[in-house]
Design brief:
This protein is mostly helical. The chain has one domain. Helix content is 68%, strand content 3%. It is built from 16 helices and three strands. The protein has a three-stranded antiparallel beta sheet with strand order 1-2-3, with no helix packed on it. β2 and β3 form a beta hairpin. The longest helix has 34 residues. The N terminus is likely disordered.
C-alpha cells in the first residue's frame, strides 16, 4: 500500500458521502441533502476563506457606495453643491481604501509586525493632536477629527487599527513564553493610553470599540477564562462610570431604556433620532419603497448618511435588503473565524480573529441601536456608512484578513500547485509556509 492510496480512498469516501447526502433513505433525492452537499464541498475547498472575504468585501463596498449616493444627494444639494458631492468624496476614500487593501494583501507578515509599534505611536500622536486647540475639529460634541482642508480624518479609527495590530503582535509573542503577566502589562498599558485619549475627546463609542478589540485579542489568545471575566467586569464598571459622568451618554441610555419598552412619549426630544429610525424601517416593509425613494433622508432622520444609514437601507430596500446586509456580515464572520481556526501562525490566528470580531461586532452594534436593541453609540456601519477614514481603515484591515486566508496551510498548497499564470494574478507574491519561532525564554 502506498501513501497515496489512503488519501485516494478517503477522497472517494468523502465524494461518496457527498453524493449520498443528496439522497434520502430509499435513494430518492433529498432537498436538504442537495443543499448540504455543495456547501460541504465549498467548505472543503482550500481557498474558500480567501474567496469569501474578497467577494463580501466587494459586495459591501458596492452596497455602501450605492446607499451613500441615495441617502446623501438631498443633503449635498442643500449645502450648495451638486447631489453627488458627498458620494464622490466617499468614492475617493473607497478607492484609497482599495489601495490599502491591495498593499495589505501583498505585505509580508514580518513587515506588519515590524511596523506595528511605529504605527501605534503615530496613532497616539494623532489622538493627542486632536486635543490641541486649532488642530482638532469638534463635531456633535466630540473633538475627534483633524481638518486637512479638502477632507477630514478621524484619528481614533487609525489608532484603533494600530492598537489592534500591535496588541496581536505583543500577545502572540508573549503567549509562546507561557507567562501571561509578561504580556498583560504592555498590552493593558497600550489599551489604557489609546482608550483614555479617545475618552478625553470624548468619544465613548469608539473607546468601547477599542476595548472590545483588546478583549477579542485576549480571548483568541486563550487567556484564562476566570481572569478574562475579571478584565471584562472591570471594563464594564469603568465604562458604566464614564457613561454616567457624561450627561449626553447617560441621556442616550435613558432614551434607550424608554424606547426598548415601547415608550415614545417624547418623540420630538431625545428619542427623536431613534424614533425616526424605527419609522424608516417600518415604512420599508418587506421589499422597500425603492432605491433613492426614501422620505427620511429629507431631513427627518439625523445622520441618515452615517450612523443611521441602516434605517435608510430598511426603508428603500425593505426587510429583504436589510436581511441581505446582515447575512453578508454573518458570512464575513464565518469566513474570518474559519481563517483563524485554520491558521498555524499564532500572530495570523490572533490577527484574523480580532479583525473579524472588530468589524462584525461593530456592524451588529450599529444595527442593534438602529433597530432599538442597543443604546446609540455613534459607531458606523463598516463599509456602508459615509466616512472616509473608516472606509480606508476597514478595507486595509480586510486586506490583512485576506492575506491571512492565503496563508492557511491548505491554501498555500493550492496556490503553489496552481498554474504559474494563475499565481501571477494581481502580482501577488507566493505565500510562504509558517516556520515556528524559537520559544521566548522566561524573564
Amino acid at each position: 500500500m502506498t501513501l497515496r492510496e489512503p488519501v485516494r480512498r478517503a477522497g472517494a469516501s468523502a465524494a461518496a458521502a457527498d453524493e449520498g447526502a443528496g439522497r434520502g433513505a430509499e435513494g430518492r433525492p433529498d432537498l436538504l441533502g442537495r443543499i448540504a452537499a455543495p456547501l460541504a464541498a465549498i467548505n472543503r475547498a482550500p481557498l474558500t476563506s480567501y474567496h469569501v472575504v474578497m467577494v463580501i468585501t466587494c459586495l459591501l463596498t458596492v452596497i455602501g457606495l450605492g446607499m451613500v449616493l441615495s441617502s446623501s444627494n438631498v443633503l449635498a444639494f442643500s449645502g450648495g453643491g451638486t447631489p453627488f458631492d458627498i458620494f464622490l468624496r466617499q468614492a475617493m476614500f473607497v478607492a484609497i481604501g482599495w489601495v490599502g487593501f491591495y498593499a495589505a494583501l501583498r505585505v509580508r507578515i514580518e513587515v506588519v509586525r515590524a511596523t506595528a509599534f511605529p504605527l501605534l505611536l503615530a496613532g497616539i500622536a494623532l489622538l493627542g493632536a486632536v486635543l490641541i486647540p486649532g488642530v482638532g475639529m469638534e463635531v456633535n460634541g466630540s473633538r475627534g477629527w483633524i481638518d486637512l482642508g479638502l477632507f477630514h480624518i478621524q484619528p481614533a479609527e487609525i489608532a484603533k487599527f494600530a492598537f489592534l495590530v500591535w496588541a496581536c503582535s505583543v500577545i502572540a509573542r508573549r503567549v509562546r513564553s507561557g507567562y501571561w503577566l509578561d504580556m498583560l502589562f504592555p498590552a493593558i498599558l497600550g489599551w489604557a493610553v489609546v482608550a483614555g485619549l479617545i475618552v478625553v475627546a470624548p468619544d465613548l463609542g469608539m473607546a468601547t470599540a477599542t476595548t472590545l478589540v483588546f478583549l477579542a485579542a485576549l480571548w483568541f489568545a486563550g487567556y484564562p477564562g476566570r481572569h478574562f471575566l475579571y478584565v471584562l467586569g472591570f471594563g464594564t464598571v469603568v465604562f458604566g462610570v464614564l457613561a454616567a459622568a457624561f450627561a449626553y451618554r447617560f441621556e442616550r441610555i435613558r432614551t434607550f431604556t424608554s424606547t426598548f419598552v415601547g415608550d415614545f412619549s417624547n418623540p420630538q426630544g431625545s428619542a427623536y433620532q431613534s424614533y425616526q429610525g424605527m419609522l424608516s424601517l417600518a415604512d420599508g416593509g418587506l421589499f422597500g419603497v425603492g432605491l433613492g425613494q426614501s422620505s427620511a433622508k429629507w431631513f427627518y432622520l439625523p445622520e441618515a448618511t452615517n450612523d443611521f444609514i441602516f434605517a435608510i437601507i430598511g426603508e428603500e430596500l425593505g426587510w429583504f435588503g436589510a436581511a441581505v446586509v446582515v447575512a453578508l456580515y454573518v458570512a464575513l464572520g464565518w469566513a474570518g473565524m474559519r481563517i483563524a481556526l485554520r491558521s498555524v501562525d499564532p500572530f495570523r490566528r490572533l490577527l484574523a480573529g480580532t479583525i473579524t470580531t472588530a468589524i462584525v461586532l461593530q456592524a451588529f452594534i450599529n444595527i442593534g441601536y438602529v433597530v432599538g436593541l442597543l443604546p446609540v453609540t455613534g459607531l458606523q456601519l463598516p463599509l456602508i456608512s459615509n466616512g472616509g477614514t473608516s472606509a480606508v481603515v476597514t478595507l486595509t484591515s480586510l486586506g490583512l484578513l485576506a492575506n491571512c486566508a492565503r496563508h492557511e496551510p491548505e491554501a498555500i498548497s493550492a496556490i503553489l500547485s496552481s498554474p504559474a499564470r494563475r499565481r501571477r494574478w494581481f502580482s501577488l507574491p507566493a505565500p510562504r509556509p509558517y516556520t515556528p519561532e524559537r520559544p521566548v525564554p522566561a524573564a
